[in-house]
Amino acid sequence: MVLHLEGPLSDRSGWQAESCSVARAMDVIGSRSAMLLLREAFYGTTRFDDFAARVGITDAVAASRLKQLVNAGIFEKRPYREPGARTRSEYILTEMGRDLFPVVLALMQWGDKHLQPGSAGPLDVVDRPGGKRVDLSPRDVSGARVPLEGLAVRVNRDWLARGSRE
Amino acid sequence: MVLHLEGPLSDRSGWQAESCSVARAMDVIGSRSAMLLLREAFYGTTRFDDFAARVGITDAVAASRLKQLVNAGIFEKRPYREPGARTRSEYILTEMGRDLFPVVLALMQWGDKHLQPGSAGPLDVVDRPGGKRVDLSPRDVSGARVPLEGLAVRVNRDWLARGSRE
After folding, report:
1. Of A63, B8, B68, B147, most Cβ neighbours within 10 A?
2. How far is A84 from chain B (nearest CA, A)?
3. Is B127 on the interface with A (CB under 8 A)?
4. Secondary structure of chain A: what % helix, strand, coil (to 5)?
5. Per-residue pLDDT tens digits for B51-94
6. Interface probe with B: pick from A10, A11, A20, A22, most Cβ of B within 10 Å
7. Which of A23, A22, A2 is nearest to A12 (CA)?
């Protein structure tokens, strides 16, 4: 039903999730407005006014969130100027930002399945040119889906070897 | 670089993400404490005191969040009693809750790559018995990974056919 805990992890009373990557990720992108700004960026939005209007947040919230996401390395701020207008900024996803796509897609697919009438959401993410819904599931090296009961958690030796627990 | 928008979606000024599944998902699980309670549930935690201690939140916050997650259908509350003690509750992931595993794994893998020194997080999720890190990427029907530039967003016909925009 849940993940198998390997070796020293099997006794949960003996450890806690210190330096947890899930916690660190939520510290950076764990707000509704941050996640919806990301969604918009994947739809191609780059301009401040577009972000605020399409996410439905105030300019103040949009400015504050975008600044946080720039500082975190998720967006890069680039100047642009339309003829006759002052210089403004565009917000472009960095590689670190683009790597968040599985997070957004996982939320979307779960929301489609469990939070929409008839398990049908308004939008589908499909491959090109196939046009079939893409799947996001844990897979083994052969590419086969692994169900929850086929998964285990273990200590990462590279992390232990580094000896850093900051 | 970002998703291709198909058909009527290609003009972003003509639509907004109404009834968005990402937004609905974040309304339910979009807090740091909710996500860490889920992480703990996947590690096998079921009891109130364990949840509060392992997530590092107060009893009041744990009680409030767990109640929200039960009401949302993510946990089922079950009574248990140890000899000589009063009846208490366990919190067990429902199928809807277990379906959140890709969200937790996506956050973990992104945090491992971008928020840990040396891109090494403390824990790895591996397949059994293979012992290799599992991958979580968008895949087409053949099981091949699809990069961001190979993906498109389109209107879900089932959603349109339903005609419901609640």
Report:
1. B68
2. 22
3. yes
4. 50, 15, 35
5. 999 999 999 999 999 999 999 999 999 999 999 999 999 999 99
6. A22
7. A2
